[in-house]
Amino acid sequence: MKYEGILVALYILVLAVIAIELFSQIALTVVIVLLIVMIAVQKAGLEKSIRSFRDEKDKKLDDILSKVEEVSKKADNFKEDLGRQVVFVDNRVADVRHFVENEIQNVYAEISKRLAELEERLKESKETLASAVGSLDERIQDIQREEEESLG
Question: pTM higher than 0.70, yes or no?
């Protein structure tokens, strides 16, 4: 921006030099002065175009940056949601695991209790069978003695 002031000063100096040197030839002086003014006007227009192009480019870059930030925020939100869902599922799995472990322990305790009852019944049946066999064995021996006595 400080270059613009320097350029304007140089244009004025060139115009002054041309006007002084070519003052005797007014037509040539006017043409050269008009050419320099045209160059200055074109340069100012070109700088304005460059400035507007730069502003437009900056605006588009800002739009792109805001969209990238929006996508980044959405990705971060998705990541956080996914993390929450993983924690929820993990907690749910832990709850189910705990429930299943308790059920397995309850079923195991019930099966152990029934097995103990079955063993007790088998023991009682064995004792009953043993006493029945013992009683039958005594009867058979009694019958054999009676037969031996009657035969002998």
Answer: no
